[in-house]
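In the laboratory, one determines a bound structure by crystallizing the protein with its ligand and collecting diffraction data. In a computational setting the workflow is compressed into a single prediction: the sequence and the ligand go in, and a structural description comes out. We illustrate the idea with adenosine-5'-triphosphate.
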Amino acid sequence: MTGQMSQAWAALRQAPAFRRLLALALAMSFARQAALLGMPLLTMHIFDGVTEGHNLDTLMVLSIAFVIALSMAGALRALRAALMSALADDMARRLSLEALQAAVRSALLGSRQPGLAALQDQAELRRFLGGNTIADLFDMTAVPVALVVLFLLHPVYALVVGAACVMMGLLGRVLDRTTRGLVRGASERQLKNAGELQGRLRQSDMLEGLGMLAAVVRRWEPAQAAALAEGDRAQARARAVRGVTEYASYMAQGGVVVVGVVLALGDRASPGSIIAAMMLAGTATQPIARIVLAWREWAFANLAWQRLQELFADHAAPAVRPADPAGPPGLWLRELRWTPPGGLHPVLADVTLYCPPGTVTLVVGPNGVGKSSLLRLALGLLPAEGGQALLGGQATRFADRALLGPRIGYLPQDVQLLDGSVLQNIGRFGPEDAAGVVDAARMAGAHEMIGRLPQGYATEAGPTGGLSMGQRRMIGLARALYGAPEFLALDEPEAGLDQAGREAVRDAVLAARAEGAACLLISHEPTLWSGHVDQVLRLAPGGHWRAETPGDATTAAGETAA
Ligand SMILES: Nc1ncnc2c1ncn2[C@@H]1O[C@H](COP(=O)(O)OP(=O)(O)OP(=O)(O)O)[C@@H](O)[C@H]1O
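The predicted complex, in structure-token form:
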């Protein structure tokens, strides 16, 4: 086990409650096995002792013992199931936050649907741990004990049943080996297909408007059929092995009866011992059969475990580093170097820039030159190939995000609001702070607009809320300004806004500057910012860049627009 997965698992194992529950579940399994293993011996006594001695009192006592043993086994099984379910809940609670955080980090690097896959994997593990499969594993403790008792009854019984157990175990191993790759392939294809289809179906206007829906579904069908076919191949192999396994269990019981009759004919076994041996054959082979029959649960839990391990190993949280107390206030980009995934040449080559508190820095350059990536590097969202971004001496990539978040105001190019009210979105889903939210909305020039919404600040803002793109952008700007952050990173904040909206954005940035924020913003609107910026960072293809002093802003932005 590697990385955070092993840490999460180690933490789980060390938790006193977890260990107590696990030990209790194991103890119950042993108690249950003892109750079940007593039954064949009782049966033997009934057959041999009672029938020979015609002793009905003994039969009565043995019958009561029989019922008590069975009821105990049943009650212990139910109790153990409840314990395992509690264990599964504990594991799911511990894993879900870690899994989602790792999924978000993988999404930052361009992965699709990682959150959904991580949640599915975590749910699969929870189902596995809380279901009967682990309990079946505990019941395997009965196998050696049953074999020893069989051996004591007669070594040939143990030989027959032992051979059946080995054969079933080998079949299970072969099944696991031959289907593991197929299960993984099918599951990953299906996840990829589901992610792609979901992404395409989200563009419902375009699909209906351009009549592309049928073509999109037609393109999806063969990929989905291939994924299902791979799953079917694994199922077919499983069906064959499961059939043989069930057969092997019956064969062991039948073999024991045949051997027992032969032994009884030579007076080397009693009739009672044949029945006891047959029951013990079932006790020894059934847990193995159940494990092989639960192939699907094992295969998918194993896949989920592996995938979560890989997610944690590949997307571990960067280790938090302490801030440099001597670091300058504001934002300092030091020799930032970045090449896009799969790219051959750096898009940003050793960019160095200092944005002091109370200043506005405009980033300009043609499409695809690396402006948004620079902003994401400054925020510590992308790993830099070289150099670092420091906010007040704190490397943003290696900061505690919960502490860094409130110090930052970020408006991404593609503004998304989350399910929830306008008030909650602007307040970043923190404790209710109506006054702070209204202040931020006023600063963003969004307060009046919000007042005109059907339910004002209580209006639903998420994707189903029906807000226009401009309204979403202004609410997104208010969210960025909420809490007076010391660093404001705005990616084309005025895009798609009318003249009044664009001026409101500019006024908001100037107000934030007046309050001491270091503002780094990308814009394709040269005239809007003319005379209002303190420095310009001009990016050019090939990793070239130049920082310019005030007065050049109009020229730089004008060139970008051209
Ligand atoms: N996750 C990614 N995977 C691969 N390439 C990427 C990724 N993110 C960015 N790039 C590439 O990096 C380059 C810079 O992209 P970026 O979005 O930073 O440009 P930009 O200057 O903001 O463009 P625009 O003005 O069009 O918004 C582009 O060539 C883009 O294709």
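Residues 424 and 430 are 7 Å apart (CA to CA). Keep in mind that any predicted model is a hypothesis to be tested, not a measurement.
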